[in-house]
């Protein structure tokens, strides 16, 4: 099948997030860092998909594509996911939430603005999305379609932060986990400032966990597979309450800690069930990784929490952000409309240019015919050409102005399409037909 230039580019999101997919399924769907590029390269092999981005976090696995045929593109993505994860494509389809065009754009803007996050208002997600986009762009897996979209998404996220209080206080999965630990410790008469915690992992999540623990007065033992990374993080934290331990000693020291946070990028569990011994005290271990770092262990003296278990703390602070979230969703709706309007404005200029080109060619053709038949002396050609140029410019002035105005409103879709049809123009245009974008529609699964 050949891609047809006259086909309209569409946007599609296939999403598996904390809202619709449990952590066990997200683990199975997770694409490891080493496989992201070959995965996206295979996604782009479909003739119906032109560009793609993969966003993988502890809360979501999402594929963003610009495409031409939704059914072919969707089936290809499911098949590719099945190949890379070993899951049945029907099971993948059953768990997927599919969003198209304005709903896809609204969702992506919401993700970038942290309105779709487990912890609404957290600031990590914008950076994660930027990194995902950069990886695709640097490897020529996305171009103008996704670049336009991402630039709008990041502008929208910045505007949400500036115009609302959604991120007024430092929030993240890491800070929520530390707050939950503090809450659980108080229930048994303990405080963070008298606790020594083990932190495994020196990436962004580990760094944030360390900062929040130190702010609460806790002491930390830090482990990283690459010991130098642990030293680098300790240097950044610049605290006498951080101790570095060798990762090789994990099994030996593991059971000495009542409080543990693990957030590595390992592809399999770093804490195996046979490493965990019983203890005389209640232990609280937080697994903030995807796939998870801690193997399932059933012990009366041990509670293991994953990212999906943070809801009880999140709900306590949800009310304070609800009003800001309402304002933020209005910003999202505005940016979604602006994005499609902007795309139409870009697409209408080639139409205007082509119409002017056709008028000029028609005028010159008739001028040549008039000279050839002797209706007009050839020495008059230059002057008559100027007259004709002024005439068709004057004639087309109002129609082209109306066309530009139409491009700034979704109500102008039929006008733009009619002009394309009348003048046989096949430029790629993203239309805004029947535009509607409401908050609750973003969680509706697309009918097949």
UniProtKB/TrEMBL annotation:
SUPFAM superfamilies per UniProt: Glutamyl tRNA-reductase catalytic, N-terminal domain, Glutamyl tRNA-reductase dimerization domain, NAD(P)-binding Rossmann-fold domains
Catalytic activity: (S)-4-amino-5-oxopentanoate + tRNA(Glu) + NADP(+) = L-glutamyl-tRNA(Glu) + NADPH + H(+)
Annotated residues for binding of NADP(+): 201-206
Pathway(s) annotated for this protein in UniProt: Porphyrin-containing compound metabolism; protoporphyrin-IX biosynthesis; 5-aminolevulinate from L-glutamyl-tRNA(Glu): step 1/2
Marked site (Important for activity) residue numbers: 107
PROSITE patterns linked to this entry: GLUTR
Presence of keyword Oxidoreductase: yes
Pfam families assigned: GlutR_dimer (PF00745), GlutR_N (PF05201), Shikimate_DH (PF01488)
EC number(s) from the headed UniProt entry: 1.2.1.70
Domain Quinate/shikimate 5-dehydrogenase/glutamyl-tRNA reductase residue range list: 186-313
Domain Glutamyl-tRNA reductase N-terminal, residue spans: 14-164
Assembly and interaction partners: Homodimer.
Additional record remark: During catalysis, the active site Cys acts as a nucleophile attacking the alpha-carbonyl group of tRNA-bound glutamate with the formation of a thioester intermediate between enzyme and glutamate, and the concomitant release of tRNA(Glu). The thioester intermediate is finally reduced by direct hydride transfer from NADPH, to form the product GSA.
Entry protein name: Glutamyl-tRNA reductase
